[in-house]
Amino acid sequence: MAQHNDARVGKDLIERTLRHEPTDAIPWVPFAGVHAGKLVGYTAGEVLTDGDKLLESLLAVNRTYDPDGQPIVFDLQIEAEILGCDLVWADKGPPTVALHPLASRMEIPDHLPTPNDGRLPMVLDVMRRMKVEVGAKTALYGLVTGVFTLASHLRGTEIFMDMFDHPAFLSELLAYASAVVNRMSELYVGAGMDVIGVVDPLVSQISPRHFRKLLLQPYAGIFDLIRQRGVFSSFFVCGDATKNIEVMCETAPDSISIDENIDLAAAKEITDRYNITMGGNIPLTTHMLLGSQQDNMKFVVDLLATIDTHNFILAPGCDMPYDVPTENVVGVVQAIRDPEGTRAMLANYQAETLDLGAVRLPEYDALDRPLVEVFTLDSDTCAACAYMRDAAVRATAELAGRVELVEYKFTERENVARVKKMGVKNLPSIYINGELKYSSLIPSNRELVDEIKKHLEA
Fold it and tell me: Hey, what's the torsion of the CAs at 9, 15, 20, 25, to 10 degrees?
C-alpha cells in the first residue's frame, strides 16, 4: 500500500490526539503483534525470539497497513518469563504461562528486570532499530504487562482468593508488580518509545471497589512516572471492563484502549468527561478474522458515525489474530482514510448472516452429568480467557470425572454462531447446564466447585 504524504497523519496525529488537540483526521494503530510475522511468513515464535525477523515483520506492517502508530511486540509474557514463569509456545499466538512460581508459596520477589534479562536485549534492540527506520513518521508503542495480570502470572488463580484471604500479601505482591511495570516503562522509554501502553486484561475480572483499593494508587503512580519521562501513556484493558472505565480514568492515563466487549460510545462518554483519549475497538474475530473486507470497512464507518471522533484512536480491540486476512486490514485503512467515500461505496452492502440453525445445543435437561461450558475469545492468546479456562479445568478435575467440560473458542465460525444462539453477552463466560454462572469474572476454585456440586446434588 502506498504511504501517505499528508502531514495530518502519522506520529504527529497520534501526539496531537493524545494531547487532546483538534485534528482533521482520525489516527489508526493496528495492534499487529504476531500477525506481523504472517505478512512475511514467520511463525509467532520466530518473530518473538529473533530480532531480525521481528524487525522485518514490523516494517512489513508499516508498509502494508500505513499506521499512524504501531507496537513493537504484543507479548504479555516477556516480564513473566524473566521472573521465573515457564512458557508454552505456539506457532500462531504469543506464549502462555504454564507455571506460576508463587502458586504454592506466599513470597515477594525482589528482582527488577535489567536490559540483559530474558528476551529484553532483543526487544530493546528492535525498538531502537525501528526508531531509526520509521520513528520520524510513526509513533512507536512499547507494551508493558499490567500490574494485576503480571501478579496473576506469578501467583496463578490463587490471586482471586488472596483478595479475601490474604489481602496484605496481595498488596505487597501488587506493589512489586508495579515496580516491575515502572522499570519496564523506563527501559522502553530509553529505547525510544513514544507511547507506553500498560496492558492489563485481568482488570475486567475485578470490581471497582477492589480496583480502588488495590490498583488506583499504583496505576496513578505509573502514569505519573510515564508523564514525567516525557512520553504518552495508554491503559489497555480487555474483556467487559465497563464497570471499571470510570476508575481507570481516575488513574489519569493519556488514553484508554478497550476491546469489543465494551460499548465504545458509552465508554467514550465517560472518558470524554475526563478528557482522556479513547482507543478501540474493531472486533477481532467476527470481523477481522472471519469477516470480509467489506464487513470491516462497514464496521469502521458505522462506528465513526456513532461517536464524537475528537479524542479517538481507531484500533483493533486487542492483539490481532495471526491469520487475519491482509485484505481485511487494508479495508480498515481505506475506511479510516476516506470514511465518506467508503460509506458511499457500501451503501447497498449487506453482511452475510450466520446460520444459527446449523448449531445443535445440548439437551440440558437430559444430561447424565453436569456440563461446564467455557466460552472464550481464545484461551491460547487471551490472558483472562486462559485463567477462566484454567479455573474450570481445576474445578472439574477436583470432581474426578463426575463433570463434563468443553471450551468454545470464538476464533471458529461455528462457535461464533453458538455464542449468538446461546445469547452469550461477554467473553470469557462459564455456563453450567446451559445457565450463565460467571461472565467476565473468574471464580475462585471453591466457589466454582460449590456451584458445580449444586448440580451434582440436584
Answer: 0
Are 385 and 377 contacting, i.e. CB atoms less than 8 angstroms apart?
Answer: yes
| Helix, strand or coil, per DSSP, at residue 7 | coil
Size of the chain in residues: 458
Cα–Cα separations (whole angstroms), residue 9 to 27, 169, 285, 313, 434: 7, 47, 27, 12, 48
Mean pLDDT, residues 58-83: 97
Q: Is the pTM of this model over 0.70?
A: yes
How far apart, in whole angstroms, are the C-alpha atoms of residue 403 and residue 452? 8
Give the pLDDT mean for 387-392: 87
Task: Give strand pairing partners of 278.
Answer: 256, 312
Query: Within 208-263, where are the H helices?
Result: 208-214, 216-228, 245-250
Which position has the grid cell 471497582?
208
3-state helix, strand, coil in the chain (%, to 5): 50, 15, 40
Domains, in order of start, for the chain: 11-345 (3.20.20.210), 356-457 (3.40.30.10)
Give CA–CA dist 116/126, Å, rounded: 14
pLDDT over 90 at 312, yes or no:
yes
Q: CA nearest 451: which of 371, 367, 361?
A: 371
Residues 177-201 as b/e (b if ≥16 CB within 10 A, e otherwise) read bbbbbbbbbbbbbebbbbbbbbbbb
Q: Which amino acid is at 194?
A: D
As given in the structure block, the three cell numbers for residue 186 are 523506563
Nearest-10 Cα torsion for 109, 112, 115, 116? -20
| DSSP notation for 395-406 | HHHHTTTSSEEE
Report the distance separating Cα 240 and Cα 428, nearest Å: 9
Beta strand pairing call for 139-145 and 69-71: parallel
List the grid coordinates of 49.
525470539
The three cell numbers locating residue 133:
527506520
pLDDT digits (tens, 9 = 90+) for 46-65: 999 999 999 999 999 999 99
Number of H helices, E strands in the chain: 19, 13
> Could you tell me if 37 and 53 are in contact, meaning their C-beta atoms sit under 8 angstroms apart?
yes
Question: Which backbone phi and psi does 178 adopt, to 5 degrees?
Answer: -65, -40
CB 112 within 8 A of CB 177: no
**C-alpha cell of residue 444:** 475462585
Instruction: Kindly give, in sequence order, each residue whose CB lies less than 8 Å from that of residue 217, ignoring residues fewer than 6 positions away.
Output: none
Distances (CA, A) of 413 to 358, 408, 416, 425: 11, 11, 5, 17
Per residue in 175-220, pLDDT tens? 999 999 999 999 999 999 999 999 999 998 899 999 999 999 999 9
